[in-house]
Amino acid sequence: MGQTGERGIDVQTQATSDFDIEFRGVTKRFGAVTAVQSMDLQVARGGFFSFLGPSGCGKTTSLRMIAGFEQPSEGDVLIEGRSVVGTPAHRRPVNMVFQHYALFPHLDVFDNVAYGLRQRRPRPDRDTIRRQVGEALELVRLSGFEGRRSWELSGGQQQRVALARALVNRPTVLLLDEPLAALDRKLRRDMQIELQTLQRDVGITFVLVTHDQEEALSMSDTICIMRDGRIVQMGGARELYDEPANAYVADFVGKSNFIAGTARAGGGLRDPHGRGFGGRRPAGGRALGEGEKAVLAVRPETVAILPDGAASGGFDVALAGRIRNRIFLGEHTEYLVAVEGIGDMLALVPKLAEEERGSFGEGQAVTIAWNDRSALVLGDD
Questions:
Q1: Last residue of a domain, which of 238, 254, 280?
Q2: pTM of the predicted model as reported, rounded to 2 decimal places
Q3: For 3-19, what is each residue's pLDDT tens digit?
Q4: CA–CA separation, 343 vs 336, rounded Å?
């Protein structure tokens, strides 16, 4: 039995587990190189899950083991509670959308989408294929494009055809291998919304691989941050942004200012010049001992810029600085402020606040300020 999504695509719901995907002690080696190390992972059914990390962290290898293009060297991979180790890719209930879409240039849109249906045995009849292709194209808002060739489509339309071709086979899991990388910034943002809406409409599990933190933060229910083949932290977008487990996550997810130093026994950090800064340990962050190497992380949007000599009594920290650079970005202005003994610090000032209080010019002396509750004391892992 299955259920029908809001736009008519049947979604398979039978499963023997609460998780569509599980990794149990999975390791993958390529000769002497270990790409994935002892990974334990559970992906809940019906969610939007992302692997996020820099090149070489193991995220794409993890996706390929789900797809069946790679087999684990150790451990077990399960889909819907059943082991798929040794099961070839074409026999797994998954489909993949590739970075460059891999559309067949000699086929029109209808035949590209119908290709997978025609490979089934027994093969669906012509009316069934026509109906299911029509439903898939309606889902991605391409009804009426059936007769077009790939070179007659924009980048966003080609991506939608690739999505329709994957969804028409009604997979348990849809795998997305950096599918937006070839799009320009505005179209990429539009397609992020499209993908998120599509996932909610069809109700199947989406698994995305990306190095773009904006993509992962904007679309995902759960994000898995990877480094050197291991999971560093998993959680929702707000959790990873507000409560990073260490400096690596704080640096990779969003922007942060870092002040290096050592942990203080009562909390906070002492910099190399002996100055003390207050801050809190994030939920999930490890406890740091007195004198242990650490960093203070302060998000740019929590940093205020005040005129030189202005009262800063409402803030816990106030430091003299000088504007090095100013970049207007529309909704906010990005200031780079040189602070003696610390270096450059970034501050983001909303447009409304700048209109009310005025802007600052390059070379101008200022005071930067923040509150202790906005600062995180993190292990320098």
A1: 238
A2: 0.84
A3: 444 333 444 444 457 89
A4: 10
